[in-house]
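re: ur question from earlier - yeah i can do the single chain one, its not a big deal. heres the input i used so u can compare w yours
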Amino acid sequence: MAGGYDDRDGVIWMDGKLVDWRDANVHILTHALHYASSVFEGERCYDGKVFKSRQHSERLLKSGELMDMAIPYTVDEIEAAKRATLDANKLTNAYLRVVAFRGAGEDMGVAASRNPIRMAVTAWEWGNYYGDAKMKGAKLDIAKWKRPSPETIPVAAKAAGLYMICTMSKHAAEAKGCSDAMFLDYRGYVAEATGANIFFVKDGEVHTPLADAILNGLTRQTVIGMLKDRQIKVHERHIMPEELEGFEQCWLTGSAAEVTPVGSIGDYNFEVGALVRDIAEGYEKLVRA
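and the output i got, formated as C-alpha cells:
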C-alpha cells in the first residue's frame, strides 16, 4: 500500500458499514478535532489472528468510559467490525487502528454531550515500527516534556490528547537522529517512550516502571508474563533516571513496537544482549501461535 493515508485503495469500517477508503471522512466541526475527545486502540493481526483482540476491545470501551464517552458498541460488535475490515481488505498480517470519537452534532464547545459517539476501524500492512532497530537497537532521546499526573488526566485511557507531547517529543528526537524519546513522569521517574513501555536489565533481573502514571500496555503485561514463565525476577517500581547508567540491556514493548531492543538513551548505552533477543524471539512465536 502506497501514498498518503487519505489516498489509498481499500475499505474502512465506519459507524456500522464498510465505506471506500477515500470516502471515510468527517466534518470539520467534529468535536474530536477541536477538543481531542477521542480514544483508540492499535493492534496487530498475525496470520489472520488479532493478538489480544478482545482485551483491546475491552480496553477501548474502558477508555471511552474514563473519557465520559459511552461507546455505542459491545465487545462482540467491535470484534465483528475488526474481522469485517480485515476480510474486506484481504489482510492476514496487518496493523489495525480502532478509533472512537465525539462527532459533529448539536454542540460545538467544550461540552458536547449531545454529539454522537462514532467509531471507525482501519487496517493496513505495516512493517517494523522502528525499522532496523529491531536488530541494531533503537536510539532514544530524553524528552523535555513529562508524563502528567493521574490527577490531571485519566492516564489509564488510551486517549488522543495524551499523545500531543508524544508527537512533539518524537519530532524533536528524529531531528537529532534518534528513533524515539523517553519520558520522565511528573515526579521525575522514568516513564515510557512516546508509544511504548520500557524495560531494563541488570544482573539478570528486569526492571520496569510502575504503571501508576503510564498506560499499562497489553504487550507490557504479556512480556512480564513471559519473563516470569522463564523464572526471571521482574521489579515493577519507580526508576530514577540516574539508574540508567547501571543497566545493561533495554527494550521497548507495544503493539506497534512489539519487542524492540534499545541501544542508547541520551548518553547511556545498552547492549542488544541475549535476554532481549530471547524475549523478542519468544514474543514473535507467541503472537503467531
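The longest helix spans residues 53-66. not sure if urs matches, ping me
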